[in-house]
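Batch job 17 of 40 flagged for manual review because the log was empty.
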Amino acid sequence: MAKYLLVSFKTCPWVQRAAIVLREKAIDFEFRHIDPDNRPDWFLAISPHKKVPVLRVDDRVSLFESNAIAEYLEETIAPRLHPEDPLARAVNRAWTDYVPTFADAVTATAYADTEADYHKAAERIPVPFARLEKALEPGGGPYFNGAGYSLVDAAYAPFLQRYVFLDRVKKLGHIEKFPRLAAWSEALIKRPSTHSFPPAEFEELYRANLKRRNKWVSQFVEAAKVVAA
């Protein structure tokens, strides 16, 4: 069995995606967190882009980019998380390709410098939500393809979780208008593999990071109530 080291910033959603796949496949791995503002020399030596995630395989090869890591693990280790049908598998891959666009839209309020920018960012959220709401219809839930968990679920879970966190800091009020998406989000957040830390502890870490970022929404962090998922 190969030896795996996953290097992370504690609140990085892209690392979280890779960790979810590792846990879903019951793969033993070392999880090592580093400070994004003080990246150690050993990390810089093994990370081609000097970014996380990096999955180090047998202390020999560095895999980077969360989608490439997920696909490698899918090709090499059971259980299979992609659908068996080639057409369904292609559809799943297309939706994982949409993740960066989705993530940018649903978390943009965290990076808004002004109140006007915040509201402009919030207004973008229903577009990707509506697209996913429609995409979820054929599967019937609780997961993207139905009863079986997939790489699509692993890809979206970190960003739906962050939407929930941001909604608790300052109410956005969008996801409840999309019942299939809301149910999917709830199922993903309840799934143990989503969590690298106890849920309430991780939300505190996320909120602390939001506060440090010092964007417009950070002023509301202290008033937010953390609710364990």
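Reviewer: the log was empty due to a logging misconfiguration, but the result itself is present. Residues 151-169 form the longest helix (19 residues). Unflagging and moving on to job 18.
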